[in-house]
Every structure is written in C-alpha cells, then in structure tokens.
Amino acid sequence: MPLLRLAVCLIFMTVAAPVAAAQLQRLDGQTMGTTWSVQLVLPSAQSAEQVRRGIQAELDRVDGQMSTYRPQSELSRFNRAPAGSWQVLPPEFFEVLQHALQLAKDSDGAYDPTVGPLVNLWGFGPDQRPRQPPTVAAIEQAKARVGWWKLKLDPVAHRAWQPGGVCVDLSAVAKGYGVDQVGRYLQRIGATTWLVEVGGELKAHGRKPDGMPWRVGIERPGAAAGAVNAADELVRTIELDERAIATSGDYRHVFEDNGRFYSHHIDPRNGWPVPHQVASVSVLADDAMQADPLGTTLSVLGAERGMAYARRHGLAVLMIVRTAQGFEQRMSPAFAAELRR
C-alpha cells in the first residue's frame, strides 16, 4: 500500500472493486464540504454497501448537528436562538461543544468556538464576502460577539445558554469527531482493522492483513497535489497504531491582498489572521476530536508559544515553520517518542 499524504486535503481515491475476504476494501463519500475515505477488512456479515451507508449515516448525523452551512442544523438553530435562552442540544453536539469550551479555557482563548463572527467577516465561513481585509471597525464589532466564557453548559439536561449574538463555529473539531464516530461504528459492527479519514484527519485501528501497521505521510506545505513521486512531497512518515492524527495548515485556505497573505487561522483574541509563520501543525492523539482543534490552537499561539504549550501538556506535535532558510521541522518530545516506538 502506498503512503498516504495527509494535510488539509483529500488523500484517498475512489471505491475499490470488491476483493476477497481478509483483504482491504476501500470506501468513500462526501461530508462536511469535503470527502471521507475508509480502508478496512469487511466483517463477514456486512457488505461493502451496508458499511458505506452506515459510515455515511454517522457522518451525516455529525454534519446535520454541527454544520455552519446548513440553516437547519442544530448549531445554526442555536446561533439564531433568542438572547437569554437555554437550548437543549443533542448528545453529540453537547459533547463536542463541551470539549471545545474546555480547550478554549485551557488555551486562554487561543482556540475559541465562538469565533464564528470573525470567521464570517474574513470570508472563511458560510457568509462569504469579497476577499479583502475588513475595516478595523468591522473587526472590533465582530470581536465584541466573541468570547467562550459567555456560554454556559448544563451537563445534566444537555443544555447550552445562548446569551445573545454568540455564533458558535465547530469547524475545527467536527471533522475529528466525525472520524471518531465512524471508528466507533466500525468497532460496533466487528471490523478489526481500519483506517478512517475525513478531510485529512485520520484514525487507525488494528493492523493490515499483511501484519504491517498503517503508515501515513505528513505532506510538505505547498506540495503539489497528485505529484508523481509522493515520497518527495512528504516531510515525515509515521505509523498509526490505535492513534489519530490531524494536520492544520495555513496554505490551502488563504487569500492575498496587496502582497499580504491572510489565512483562515484567525486569532479570536485580536480578530486578525495569525502571522504567516507556522505553515502546518500535525498532532497525534488518542482521538481525532482531541487532535483536530489542537492544530488550530497551536497555529494561533505561534511557533514558540505553541510548542511551549505542547511540551507543557505532553502533546505529540510536529510543526513546519517558515524561516529565512526555508521550512524547518520542530517536534515536541512526545512526538519524537512516537517516532521511536
């Protein structure tokens, strides 16, 4: 099996033709404005189409609850809810929001799920606008609506408090949660080996039929999609064993204005896209929901503070940083330990 290139891009191809038992089957589809792909050995009692439908149903549930692009999603309804009201949330939505708010607290707001007004203002959300910087006044107006501490949660009743004007955006965590949900579904139906990918976020379980571990490659920032020699476009390869990996990069969702580049990584604390220094952040974790938003968090914190945060919390992180001499790899001790396993 060739190495898989991961970043914030699709890396799998089309559904493979049916194969013999104990061999890998490949399934794919679309979700959350991107694509998903799964490689697995099918359980004996399940057909490829049954499993594909089951995977799609799991992802559709996540998208239906947490999409900022669907007006009738549970998240969109919460964002429109009257000021000063408690809103009952589905269990999945509540779990993700609870995790997001905890990360916001731990990172002192470098990650903030209420960043929606700023994401929309800069043209990276559903309310797309011309790709040019907004005015300082508009940024300040949007920033006034941002603040993770404004939200309150009721864990007993699975409710969230809408104080008014708060716009939640879970784009940095929903895909990772979707990966985990698909993994849990595959476990339920008896799949013993699989690799799940949603929009560049991956999680693996078991070993391939040949006994080899799942191996993925971390893509060099700016690498040409579909390159003939994929190995030349990778900065590092790593084995996934009961682990998830997510990569967040600033080079795919970006626009240029008067020679300055603005990425989709927006600092909720000042309302501006982060400086163009950290090209990508890859995070290894037990669950994709953990890994997914950490890439955004560390990108916002920047190369020095981000890596300090990773060391302090024992996170397995690989950063690709732009320097005067070109791209430089920086890894946390926990990531280096993963390579030695």
Explain the overall architecture.
With 341 residues, this protein is α+β, with helices and mostly antiparallel strands. Helix content is 31%, strand content 26%. It has nine helices and 16 strands. An eight-stranded antiparallel β-sheet has the order 2-3-7-8-11-14-15-16. It has a three-stranded mixed β-sheet with strand order 1-9-10, with no helix packed on it. A hairpin with a 4-residue loop joins β5 and β6 (159-162). α1 (48-66) packs antiparallel against α6 (171-188), α3 runs parallel beside α7 and α7 (288-301) packs across α8. The longest helix is centred in the N-terminal third of the chain and has 19 residues, at 48-66.
In short:
By secondary structure, the chain is an alpha+beta fold.
Q: How helix-rich are the residues, as a percent range?
A: 25-40%
Low-confidence stretches: 1-21, 224-230
Strand content: 25-35%
Spatial separation of the terminal alpha carbons: 21 Å
Number of strands: 16
- Average per-residue pLDDT, rounded, comes to 88
Based on CA inertia axes, which overall geometry fits?
A: globular
- Radius of gyration in whole Å, from Cα? 20 Å
The SSE string, one letter per element, is EEEHHEHHHEEHEEEEEEEEHHEEH
Strand order of the largest sheet: 2-3-7-8-11-14-15-16
Q: Describe the main β-sheet briefly.
A: 8 strands, antiparallel
Structural class: alpha+beta
What is the count of helical runs?
Answer: 9
Question: How is the topology of this model organized?
Answer:
Blueprint: E1 4-6, E2 25-31, E3 34-40, H1 48-66, H2 74-80, E4 85-88, H3 91-106, H4 116-121, H5 136-143, E5 152-154, E6 159-162, H6 171-188, E7 194-198, E8 201-205, E9 214-219, E10 234-240, E11 244-249, E12 254-257, E13 260-263, E14 278-285, H7 288-301, H8 303-312, E15 316-323, E16 326-331, H9 333-340
Parallel strand pairs: 1-9
Antiparallel strand pairs: 2-3, 3-7, 4-6, 5-6, 7-8, 8-11, 9-10, 11-14, 12-13, 14-15, 15-16
